[in-house]
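Forwarding the complex inputs:
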Amino acid sequence: MNRRTLLSGTAAVLAAPFVLSSARAAAPAVNVGVIMPLSGANAQFGINARNGIELVADEINGAGGIAELGGAKINLIVADATSTPTTAGNVAQRLITQQDVTALLGAFVSSLTIAISEVTERRDIPLLTMSFADQITGRGYQNIFQVVAKASVIGKAQFDYTAAIAQAAGTKIEKIAIMYEDTAYGTAQANGLRAGAKAANVEVVMDDAYPLGIADTTPLINKLRGSGAQAVFPVSYLNDSLLIIRTMRQQKLTIPAIGGAAGYVIPDFEKGLGEFAENVLSINTSNYDLAPDLTDRFRRRFGYFMVHEALEHAVCLEVLVQAIRKAKSAKAEDVAAALRGAKFTGGWINGMTGGAVQFDQTGLNVLSVPLMVQWRGKDIVTVWPKDIAKSAPVWRS
Amino acid sequence: MSILQAILDGLLIGGVYAVISIGLTLVYGVMGIVNFAQAEFLAIGMFVAWFAWAFLGLDPVLAAPLSFAVAFGIGWVVQGQLIARVLKAPSVAQIFLTVGLLIVIENGSLLLFGSQFRSVTTFYQTMSLSLGPLFISIPYLIAFGMSLACGVALWWFMRASWFGRAMRATAQNPAAAQLMGIDTDLMYKIAFALGVGLTAFGGAVILPYVTVFPGVGGQFVVLMFTVVVLGGLGSIAGAVVGGLTVGVIQALSSLFFPIQLQNLVLFIVFILVLAVRPQGLIGASR
Amino acid sequence: MKRFLPLALLILAAALLPLLLDPRGYWIRVLTFTLLFAAMAQAWNIVGGLANQTSLGHAAFFGIGAYTSTVLLLKFGISPWLGMLAGGALGGVAALVIAIPTMRLQGHYFALATLAFGEVMRVIANVWTSLTGGPGGLSVPFVPPSFAAYSFKLLRPHAYIALAALIVVTVIFEMIRRGAMGYRLRAIRENAPAAEVIGIDTTRVKLQAAVISGVLVAMLGTLYAQIAVFFDPDTVFGIASISIRIALIAIIGGVGTAAGPILGAFFIIPLEESMNALLSSRAAGLSQLVFGIILIAVILWRPRGFITVIDAFRARLSRAVKP
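Prediction (whole assembly, three chains):
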């Protein structure tokens, strides 16, 4: 490669974004930025989320776009957040400055979402997310909108629901074990679990964090075996969830395991464990069986059940579009004002608990309630709370 | 008693660490190159074994030679086209070339295979042996056995075969080796291809208990380097000793310290060992 | 005097650049981080270039700096400028702590021992939640904009501070390189036993270089904290995101030269951003793949760094000028 080619190539590369964006400005589209981890360890979840958003965008565009804006189509601008918060922030800034986005959706991983929110808050662009670290809605920011419950609430529900399910089956839980991978997600949920146990006067006989990417869970299960716990609450991604369940089987440990979402609620969990996935419980922030007529569309198009991050991001887009309709404007500040403290129903929002989304002053959806799901065959079925359960829980003690 | 179980578990998993790291030390020993992309060949081996399982119904342990062969081929090409060109360059350039290779392989896998997590189910996955009060996990035992077989085969190859001796000669003194009629370029190709092939073999062997996805290599990079450097860069025996040591340290530390700190303990021990023995446990003194 | 003209022009252009960019925009943000990473790579260059010790654990110092100033701000309301000094001091101590056990290590062993040290710091930050906020990370609290509080509404002042930092670190680098310490480091690099024989205290010199480098990188950690406003252990102690990156930047540009890290930063960071902008929407992983390919191509083309291109150009110029 000679110097000239390198220079002209670099110039083309640097100029391209400007050329591309001006070409797109021809149609009166509404630009919505989608920032997800599309590479790195969380690529799977980022891609799922993007798929959910694409499904809804295509439906809305197929039905004629946004009528209140003269049939304007939604133009998704997808970008890779990578695994580095710094880059996620850069990408957010780029989308805001160069693509004139009305809003941003993203980014699954809480640390990426927080980094992006630092940019969106300062530029008055609304950010809709399903990341659930408590900090996200805990900073008094005006432009962040979270459609699911907070981590501490999810963790507490993981315990409370389990105690209730066990009680309904005639067992009183007195000793539990908590194990969690040590990123923000696991740590936050473990805090919630601990609070739940404390409030119920239940003894936590084992409480251990482990490094993400742990290769051998035998020490954890050895400890679990010796702890006398009646139930174990593992909060894990996929590799560790499989390791934990398999090692429990190896050591003939049959106490119930109640997972903390993430690795426990994706199709790969059942594919990895086969029959051993049956009846494993997990907390979840939403589930596809609450609105099968909607979520089946995802399964038909993408070939796997609509995982919660896909559903929740679909809801984010639906809420955003409804806010745009309400404001009759695609300007970020108008849409943000329409989102703040407002309630939304209909369309994909039927997939959320309560069939509606209501943001409070901190940007949190107060109607979102965690739910307990259980593996039945290749599907996860909502089993608690009773009023939304699709099937009674099976509790093997 | 739990100490005994911990040591046992540590040795079993240590054997596996050894087999996936032997290739790395071989590449360094013969070529002087620290291959940051080595763990990506682990992922390649895992992918090959997974596809063999999914489409041919082969148990991963049986598919391991296939993983070896595929990685050997890819390594051959990579060495010839890329590594060979930087053999005379500063070592930092060599290192960062392999970093670039790491990025290419990881994202190439993402593009080719997609992001989903793939794992295998084997009949022995959840089996264990009971030796009195001790548990022995069958997948780990099989992995350990394969590692042993692999280590012995490699040792024999390096000692007894002409190629092995030629490679050792090239490692010791490339100029003299050339004068003796050894084609050092060929030796480098074989060493690299063999090294990455061995790591891929190890990947297939650990597939029963590790899920494969494009980023899985990244989870093992630091571990592999710790094993190899602890044992002594370039020494095959060092990789074995290093692997077993790392496994046992991790397992024992989980007994006395929170499990979350197992890598912390490992790294501190690592730094202290090097402070006392700068050439690693088995490495040759300078 | 004529020798300094191109350099003076360069600094003038660099000082004007932030004024030309949209202060609420994207490129000012990229410029700020580019300048920051160039400064970090330059500080690394003292150890990696002059002392020829490839450290892969400099994130340890960076993270210490970021956390020190932010924790002091959060817990005691101390200004980040003072926090930066405190962070620098701690970074220097950390450099001493790791330099002593790794003193006798050669090349690759040194690299991996430092990498292990960086990881040690990351795990400590992750586990010591009461001090560092644990894996959830820390947010720099919002304060009304003022220079004293190191808080600004827009990015332009941050860009100028980063530029100033880069100039300061580069000056320090050059002073070392041209001074007695540089001479001693060169002697150690060429032939350490011989250097000992002629009376150079190799241990002391290497420690000095390590501490200076550690102090500088830690202080730059505070800059990062104030610009990004949020970080967690993986971000500031990360192997890939910090340690390997700054070493890569210095090497691509030309390790051991003052211009190297600057060239490297201005190549790598805009390239990453451009790849992301162009390709990340098309297919997952494509932007990184192309980045990796370009990286390999550049290293194959110029294994000793971009500086060799400039040197060759300068050599051709001077040949053309000479009668």
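Chain C has a mean pLDDT of 91.
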